[in-house]
Write a structure and sequence with these properties.
globular, five-stranded parallel beta sheet, about 150 residues, alpha/beta
Length: about 150
């Protein structure tokens, strides 16, 4: 069962500007077996506003982060996350269409937890999201924030 400490649902922040990808990721997450709440940020600024404006509320337990975002790039968002004491232990999965070596290197240099290139096909994308959910919500032990 993948509820976090205190029995609350797992909180996921999806940072994605493509409405089609948002719809597919949300569908895949809805089909998952763990109770979860998903918040969507459509660009880097919105993601940072969400993260830094929630100090008194539950922060995400997992962040799915695209790199190619308007207003602030995924790399800038990741750098801000890793520079903040209350967020730096939050797992960040880069989920992007870029397979460029420099993007992969930069993400890991900013301490991304993993890097997943979005598959092109519907069923492959659904399988990738299910794999991410299975690992991060059911297999990995995470430093949940205590109530």
């Amino acid at each position: 069962m993948s509820v976090v400490a205190g029995g609350r649902p797992f909180n996921v922040l999806l940072v994605e500007d493509n409405p089609g990808d948002v719809r597919l990721v949300m569908e895949a997450l809805r089909e998952g077996r763990a109770p979860k709440r998903v918040h969507v940020a459509a660009d880097g600024v919105e993601a940072l506003d969400y993260l830094f404006g929630r100090r008194e509320q539950a922060l995400p337990d997992l962040i799915l982060l695209d790199l190619n975002l308007p207003r602030k790039s995924g790399h800038e968002v990741l750098a801000a996350i890793r520079s903040d004491e209350s967020l730096r232990r939050t797992p960040v999965v880069i989920f992007t269409s870029s397979a460029a070596d420099q993007d992969v290197r930069a993400a890991y240099e900013l301490f991304a937890n993993c890097y997943v290139v979005k598959p092109g096909g519907f069923s492959e994308l659904m399988e990738a999201i299910r794999g991410i959910e299975n690992f991060w919500l059911h297999t990995a032990t995470l430093p949940y924030r205590l109530p």
